[in-house]
Design a protein that fits this description.
heterodimer, A: 329 residues, mainly alpha, MetI-like fold, 2 domains, two-stranded antiparallel ribbon, 16 helices, B: 292 residues, disordered N terminus
């Protein structure tokens, strides 16, 4: 009798625990909605923690995109209530707006010249820098990274390529007798695009560069030793077969950073060649957007431009990440 | 035995490396390093040149008689500006600090919840963040103006500070860092001890992710420091240091010395911030990878 009682007492806590664990219905017994609601109730503190950030994020990043998609179908000048136009803005953009087509062409040239080129430069420099000893490595990293964080220091290129004979480039060329009169570098349509692309590349070793620098340091040294045993013969094979597959995630992140940045060099163009650039020769979609949205207050039309730009950027990024995710598969 | 060990060490250092390749790499690094560095050095040289050297033909790269006159000239110009110059500096400092800390707290709180609390919808939220890394902020600038004016924030500090809270790169990096460096076991044991989520976030997770904080601070600060004219601000009293420097830069030939000095000041601050935080930023970036 007493033995049984003791047994019961001993068993009961375990039983209670067992009961408590089986008491809630299992996931398979619930409908999806029931399960979700239960999870939401249990983890409601999660929503509390993300709420402040997401309030700001939704207001200033998500809402503007949706709003500009809606406004792109209307004519809106910020004063009167928007008039619904349906596709008129887009028709005008692609068929009637010659300057937009110039802008689209320049944007693509910019993106192709600065996006992939800058990406490959980031990879190459990070790879080379990784071969250096740690102290020198951090100094060289700083030298390559500094132009991208130094605000408007790219204006120094305007001094280097200044249009009078006191500019460094003109001064040297005139002294050597190559030219007789100074070249108007940032006003001459032949020189603007190459120069601006050079400056853009100069400032482009930013976040993606750092991501690569970090990626190379993550790779475990023992992989290299194992690879050498397995017959990897030179640094190219090592990069291709060992390093890149290991840092695939960094590669994807760096690609997104490079591509997004390659569409954002409008500010440099404006600062170096003025707004608008001579003969619209370095006019990008970004400038077109600024022109219609900021100066002419044709917000509906500007929204159509913004939507097109948004789709181009997202499209390029999706395409590239799809391509990169195939690396090593 | 000792000799053998030594030999292996040498070998592992030079694993798969040809001498020719090493030389080639160093040559390329020197050439491109010069391309990156010389314009920066030139900016620095310009700031130290007296006026007669700035306007000399043929122009010289290096300064002959370095002087700080350009900097004193810059400060003189600053003291004569319409709005006291300290106001611009205060604006930049205030906006940078308020924006950065707000961003740090909001983003790290959200990053913790997104990584370590399993609430429905968190994957969708993170997908949205990832998607937003894929487009440039210019796309939203026009419609944001509408939002700002609806909120009545046009021409106030709020228009500069609050959008910085929602910067996505910071949240993204913080989330990846928490994901890779905070083990679930620690959080589970804290939860079993009855700790609230907010306590876990503040007392356990935040001290573990210091490199990521610093990265967020540096990124956010750089963004705000380098932001010049904002379309949301038109009062002179609310404009930032960067804007004031742009005005001096726009002054043309007369002010070329002062503008060179201003450029150097503008560039040295972010560089100094980066030098101090470099190792932490690299550590954070190591976890930045994007998984598909």
């Amino acid at each position: 009798m007493s033995e049984k009682a003791v047994e019961k007492i001993q068993a009961s806590p375990e039983e209670a625990v067992a009961k408590k664990q089986t008491a809630p219905k299992l996931r398979k017994d619930m409908t999806k909605w029931e399960w979700t609601r239960r999870q939401m109730a249990i983890n409601k503190v999660g929503y509390l923690l993300v709420a402040p950030y997401f309030l700001v994020f939704l207001t200033f990043t998500v809402a503007p995109v949706i709003l500009s998609l809606i406004l792109s179908f209307t004519s809106f000048n910020m004063l009167e209530w928007p008039k619904f136009l349906f596709m008129d803005n887009y028709v005008r953009l692609f068929l009637d707006d010659d300057i937009f087509l110039i802008a689209a062409k320049n944007t693509l040239i910019f993106a192709v010249m600065t996006g992939p080129v800058s990406y490959l430069l980031c990879l190459m420099f990070a790879w080379f820098i990784n071969e250096l000893t740690p102290k020198i490595r951090s100094i060289v990293t700083l030298i390559f990274y500094a132009p991208s964080i130094s605000g408007q220091v790219y204006l120094i290129w305007q001094v280097l390529f200044s249009s009078d004979s006191y500019g460094y480039a003109n001064g040297i060329l005139m002294k050597m007798g190559v030219i007789n009169s100074p070249i108007l570098w940032f006003q001459d349509t032949d020189y603007i695009m190459p120069l601006v692309i050079t400056v853009a590349l100069w400032t482009s070793l930013g976040t993606s560069f750092l991501s690569f620098i970090a990626g190379f340091q993550v790779v475990d040294k023992s992989y290299y030793e194992a690879a050498a045993v397995d017959g990897i013969r030179n640094r190219w094979q090592e990069l291709w077969y060992v390093t890149l597959p290991v840092m695939k995630n960094q590669m994807m992140f760096a690609a997104i950073m490079s591509i997004t940045a390659s569409f954002g060099f409008g500010g440099i163009v404006t600062a170096l060649c003025g707004f608008p650039s001579p003969n619209y020769c370095a006019w990008t979609i970004m400038h077109h957007l600024e022109d219609y949205g900021g100066s002419r207050w044709e917000v509906g039309y500007a929204s159509a431009i913004a939507t097109v730009l948004f789709l181009i950027m997202i499209g390029c990024n999706m395409l590239v990440t799809k391509m990169l995710s195939k690396v090593g598969k | 035995m000792a000799k053998k060990h030594f030999k292996f060490k040498i070998k592992s250092h030079h694993l798969n490396r040809s001498v020719g390749g090493d030389i080639g790499i160093n040559i390329i690094l020197v050439i491109f390093g010069a391309f990156m560095f010389l314009p920066m050095l030139y900016a620095f040289m310009q700031a130290l040149k007296p006026l007669d050297e700035l306007w000399m033909f043929p122009p010289r790269f290096f300064v002959r008689n370095p002087t700080f006159k350009n900097f004193t000239e810059l400060f003189r110009l600053m003291s004569t500006s319409y709005v006291p110059f300290s106001r611009y500096v205060f604006n930049t400092a205030f906006v940078s600090i308020a924006g950065t800390f707000g961003h740090l707290f909001l983003a790290s709180m959200a990053a913790y919840a997104l990584t370590k609390i399993d609430f429905p919808g968190r994957h969708v939220m993170f997908k949205m963040i990832r998607l937003s890394l894929m487009f440039h902020a210019t796309v939203t600038s026009i419609t944001n103006f509408i939002t700002m004016s609806a909120l009545g924030w046009v021409d106030t500090y709020w228009a500069l500070i609050v959008p910085a809270f929602g910067s996505t790169l910071g949240l993204y990096l913080m989330r990846q860092f928490i994901d890779s460096s905070v083990p679930d076991v620690i959080l589970e044991s804290a939860r079993l001890d009855g700790a609230k989520e907010i306590t876990i976030y503040w007392r356990i997770v935040m001290p573990m992710v210091k490199p990521a904080w610093l990265t967020l601070i540096v990124y956010c600060f750089q963004g705000l420091w380098n932001s010049g004219t904002s379309i949301y601000i038109y009062s002179e009293e609310l404009k930032t240091f960067n804007y004031a420097v742009q005005q001096i830069l726009a002054g043309g030939i007369v002010r070329s010395g002062a503008s060179a000095a201003a450029t150097v000041i503008m560039m040295l601050v972010p560089i100094a911030v980066f030098v101090v935080s470099q190792s932490n930023i690299i550590e954070t970036m190591a976890s930045s990878g994007l998984k598909d």
